[in-house]
Amino acid sequence: MTTPRQQHDTAWKDVVTRHLFAFLEFYFPSVLEEIDTATPPRFHDKELSRIIRTQSIPDRYADLLVEVRRATGSSRMFCHVEVQGSPVADFEHRLFQYSYRIYDKVGVFPLTLVVLTDPREHFRVQPFRAGVPGAELRLDFLSVKLLDYQKNGEDLWEMQTLFSAVTAVHLAVQRTDRDVRGLKSDGRALRWFYTKRDLMRRIVRAGFDAACSADLLAFLDWLIALPPDLDAALLRETRTELGEETMPYVTSWERIATKRGYSAGEAAGREHGHAEGHAEGHAQGEAQGRSAGELTARQDILLRLLERRFVLTADERAAATSCRDIDLLTTAIDRVMNASSPAEVLACLRAPSAHPDGA
């Protein structure tokens, strides 16, 4: 079973990127007041990765560099968002390094926003200080700690906002992570199953619109990746209880669908091989069926991911489903989360190998 913290990076980066202004409104409302929300944000992931590529901080769940427009005037504003999952020595010094490196790169000093998701009360972000008398430097960082929302007894579900629910889900997963320590493997898996099932029920019944519900379910699914048999059981139970309409998202169900497509292709290949009546035909047919099933599943996953993020044209849908190169489809799937347009994702499908016939 994949442990939750292995998946937190994708979970947080996806939800913050898709809902930046809602993220700021909940955790950093004073920052949102300074931003022109009519101008879409621009994310600079490639630039940030080059800036901090030599740094290694454990349990860094998300690092984002985003450019926004100020509400007054026409000046740019850069925010460095850091979601940190465990205490780190010299954390403020590292944040300071990132700040001046970003400044060197983009020419604008960034505002650093830190979300501490760890369960340790003592870990807090302090100002960075350096220098000597007469030449002193102080750099402040804006920070929140998820643990405080739980400690203060706030009813996060009653707040009815996307990131109050994100906070509630993360804290619930964190509690389970603590409680399952010492349990045997089967006991841990069942405990995660019940946690995921209960949180899915809370999300679906919380009254969010379909898009927010889908993103919360996806966030939860990244945090809790169950073994295939339990994921399949959860899918059956949830569909029976809550209905098919509660599953409009590409998560573990699509991982199950990929496996189904693979198995169906394999079965079709076996049938074809048997019809040939030769061992060679059987092996060739099985391999062909295996490949065809995987190809169909990848095309379907890419299309669903794109439709979750963008409004697609007919040509863009056709491009996603006509590529017959599994490696290129996998590359495109990996690009969806950080892409700003369908064209940015689909560009890789125009590589020569996407069209073996030369078309």
Rg is 23 Å
The coarse overall form would be: globular
What is the beta-strand fraction?
Answer: 5-15%
**In this structure, how is the largest beta sheet organized?**
5 strands, mixed
Mean pLDDT: 80
Kindly describe this structure.
- With 359 residues, this protein is α/β, with parallel strands linked by helices.
- It has three domains: 4-149, no CATH class; 154-246, no CATH class; 252-354, no CATH class.
- Helix content is 57%, strand content 11%.
- The chain contains 16 helices and seven strands.
- It has helices spanning 8-18, 20-27, 29-32, 45-52, 91-106, 146-151, 156-159, 162-179, 185-204, 210-223, 228-242, 252-276, 279-309, 314-322, 326-335, 342-346, and strands at 42-43, 60-69, 76-84, 111-116, 128-132, 135-139, 142-145.
- The strands form two sheets. A five-stranded mixed sheet has the order 1-2-3-4-7. A two-stranded antiparallel ribbon has the order 5-6.
- Strand 2 (60-69) and strand 3 form a beta hairpin.
- Helix 1 (8-18) packs across helix 2, helix 4 (45-52) packs across helix 5 (91-106) and helix 9 runs parallel beside helix 11 (228-242).
- The longest helix has 31 residues, at 279-309.
- The chain is globular and about 70 Å long.
- The two termini are 43 Å apart.
